[in-house]
Amino acid sequence: MTLSQHLWFRVLSYIGIFFLSWSVEFLYMLGLGNRIVNNLGLFIFGAFIPFLVSLTLTFKFMRKGHLVGSIALNVINLFFGIALYAFIALVLIGANST
């Protein structure tokens, strides 16, 4: 039995991929700073960075047949990204309305 077939290894890998994808997201936000607010394309692309990172990192598990965990991780990252940017959009709308 290889290491990637153990459940505990896959769970730890999914948790690591989740935190890695969101650390890439926050570094992206810090690196571009004020440009995200001024450019709608960067703003929208930023919502999908965790999804894209986790999708590319879970291809190995998808090829091995572990689709449920891989798809669940990608969907969670996608919804967290959309929720984060909806919150940021609401804050920006509130800041611009005063």
Automatic annotation (TrEMBL):
This is Uncharacterized protein. Keywords: Membrane, Transmembrane, Transmembrane helix. It comes from Saccharolobus shibatae. The lineage of its organism: Archaea, Thermoproteota, Thermoprotei, Sulfolobales, Sulfolobaceae. It comes from the Archaea. The chain crosses the membrane at residues 7-30, 36-59, 71-95.
